[in-house]
Structures are given as structure tokens and as C-alpha cells.
Specification:
- By secondary structure, the protein is of the alpha/beta class.
- The protein folds into 2 domains: 19-250 and 442-457, Glycogen Phosphorylase B (Rossmann fold), CATH 3.40.50; 260-437, Rossmann fold, CATH 3.40.50.2000.
- 36% of the residues lie in helices and 18% in strands.
- It contains 16 helices and 20 strands.
- The strands form 5 sheets. An 8-stranded mixed β-sheet has the order 9-10-7-6-11-12-13-14, with helices on both faces. A 6-stranded parallel β-sheet has the order 17-16-15-18-19-20, with helices on both faces.
- Helix 2 (76-88) crosses helix 16 and helix 4 crosses helix 6.
Length: 473
Amino acid sequence: MLWPETRNKAARAGQFLCSVGTIRILPWRSVWIFTGEDCRTVSRNDRTSDGASVEAKAYDVLAVLPYYWPETTGHCQSVNSLLPFLVAKGLRVAVMTSNRLYSGSGMLAPFERHEGVDILRTWTPDVSRSTLAGSFIHAACLSAAAMKAFIGAKARSLFCITSPPFLFAFLAAVKRQDAVLGLWAMDIYPDVLSACGLLRAGGYAERMLARLARHGYRKCDVIFALGPVMAGRLVRNGACAELIRIVHNWTAENIRFVPRDRNMLCREWGLEGRFVVHCSGNMGPMHSFDTLLRTAALMKDSHPDVVFLLIGDGPQKKRIARRVSEEGLRNVRLLNYVPEARLAESLSLADLAVVEIRRGLEGVIAPGKVYGYLKCGTPLAVAQDAMSDTGKLIEDGAQGILLKVGDAGGLRDYICRLRNDEALRHAIRQVNAAWYETNSGLVRSGGAIAETWLNLLGKRRPGRSHDGQRKHE
């Protein structure tokens, strides 16, 4: 639900106050001011989007995330289902997040309740995160708000991911001694910054940030890692190995393979009879597309039926578009994100999904988009210079090919092999879809997170009877 932009000075002042704290919600003109007094919402007569009243409560889990529902990109594909899953397990859950969408305009309502999760939105400026400057400004505002909010917060546990960078370390410094702090490591800082050339490797800034991260890791009660390579990197960076739990990421529950004869996007994009090489997701500085574009250049004249789809947004998109134009890559299409309702159609178009792990980022990132492809049964081509968690998926039974970064010839040969063997493509779809159901998904991965959380909080939670029913409040 969008919240109207405010234009008068008083309302803008209120928005600024929103940016330096959250948790207690008070009406103030056309906005609600959030203050960090404690972790309870104040009763009011208004109703949330699902018709429920806002009642005073304390939370078992208080999460801070850059984005949350109705956003669907990036980490939202998993956390949008994880938090309601925790609610279904009997926990009271709230999330503090931005009042804006990743790439949309306008403001979201300051408070909503969705699928049992209280969503507390803090003000962030209307800047595009498709630029590095915009990403930094957004992260700084959200981090400042979270710091203010969590000082003295009475939530029984705090949950965050590794974005904004280092926020978990600051939260570790201000959380109450008896509060549980859990971190879901979706990437590792400052390793990302130095690998992308944004920090000098071994320089003073990197050493100071590494020390900050190490302090945060040691304050965490549990750290969820996306794979064994990332877990090893976390241990080398100072995390306690005994506190790390490896969980596979997952995609939205509504993602299902859509055959082409029923896929409306196939007709709308004119892809009938085409072999589709698919790459969907964030086009940020930590992602690489060089191997895919080199392969497109090799095949643009010899294989006119092969189409390369690059779908998404981010700081690299303009550079990619310029390269496509300069090299005359007629077989490459740059498209914007599709709506969530059509994501299954988009992923199902892929005859092959390409994921390239930038040099130096092995074990530092593990692109979540891979799991959407696996759920649809898509073969994977993973380009990497050293073993990554994405590459480990193929070693562990998912079907595809491991390549060196820049191996355009190898990727071209694999494309031709799949293109000429429909039976092979069908067999791989069956194997990869089964792999996903066995190793990933909300029930398995989300269940592992929920079980760990319940064990940390203790099986007998305040405000509940022995039979698990909520007592009268």
C-alpha cells in the first residue's frame, strides 16, 4: 500500500525524525514518528491493511531488513516467506524496513500487518539504488534508524542480514545482554568491497572494517551461511565455527515451471522456437556478465535462434547496454524486472541459466536467483575461478556445467549440446526440480532456521500455555 508523499515542511521534518528511530509508533500530522523507547506498538483506532487493529505487544523476533513485502527482489524472495513461517511457529514477529521499494517511486505506509508480521517502515530518501551513491545513502539512513531503534529494545531476539553492511556489528554493540542476535550471511563484508575494487585490499580501511565485522560475528548467537565455502570464509574472518548453520536459500512458493505452450511471456517476447540463455537478477558491482557477453558475441551470427536474456537492474546495466550496442549483439535483450506474479513465467523461459561468480567473490556471495532456476528444473552454467557455493550445488547433484570465468568457448559448446538434445534438457529438468525439493525450499531451509531460533529462545515462551495456545492478553 503506497503512502502519499508529504510536501509541507512540518511533515518533512516528521519524516526526518522517522529516519532516526523506530519501534514506538505515535501519530503526528500526516506521518507517524517512530521512537526507540521500547519494542511495543501503541494501540490506535486505525486498522492495518488486513483489517486488524494495532495492539500493544512485545516481540519474540525483531528483524531489520533493507526491504520487505511488497518488495520481491533479492533477499525478499526468501525472507518474505520466512517471517510469516516464524509466525506460524508461534512467534511474535516484527520487521523494520525501508518505506520505499527497491526501484519504485512513492512511499509505503509506515505500518502494516501482513501474514501476521508487523511491518514498521522508517523513512529513507527517494534515491535510486541502481547507483552506488544511492545504495550508500539508503544504507546509511536505514542503519541510523536501526541503531536508534535497537538501543534498549526489549525484543527477545534480533534478526538481520549482512545488508546494510556492518549493521549487524553495530546492533551487537547496543543489544541487551540477554537478547538473541542472529545473522543470515548473504554476503561478506569488507571482502565484497575489496574484491570489487571499492577498498584497497590490505589497506587501513579494510583492516578496520574487518575488525568491526569480527567483533560483530563474535557477538552473534547464531550465523546462517548459504554454503560450506561461505562458512569457511566466515570462520577465517573471525566467526565461531560452532555457531554457524548452513542453510540453502530458496525461492517463492508460487514459483513453478510453466511450459512454453502455456507461457504468455514466450509469445509476448517472441521467443517461440528460440533457445533461451537466461540471466536474471541484480546487476550490481559484485556480479559479472563478461563470460555471457563474450559467448553472445561468438554466437550472434552462427546461431540466430539462440537468445540471451538479461533481466534486472543495477549500477552495471548502463555499461552492459553500451557494450551490447557497441558490439552489435543483436542476440542479447536487456529487460527490466518482471512483476512477481510473472516471475515463474520468466524463469521457465530459460533453457539454460548462467551465473558468473566474479573473481575474488567465491564464498563471499551466493546468488539466490539460482534457486528459482533449480525449482523450475533449469540446467546451470556456473563460471568461476575457484570453488564457490553456487558451484558446489553442481558437485552435490544439481545438473549443469562448471566453467572458468571467461570461457566463452566452453559455454558456447554447452549451449549447443543442450540446444541439439531436447531429451537431455527434459532429463535435467526432472533432476534439478527434484534436487530443489530435497535440499531447499521453505519447509526444509526455513524450518531449519525456525528450529534453531526456537531452541535459542527456549521451548517455553512467555505468554503461552503448555499446550502452545496463546494466553489471553
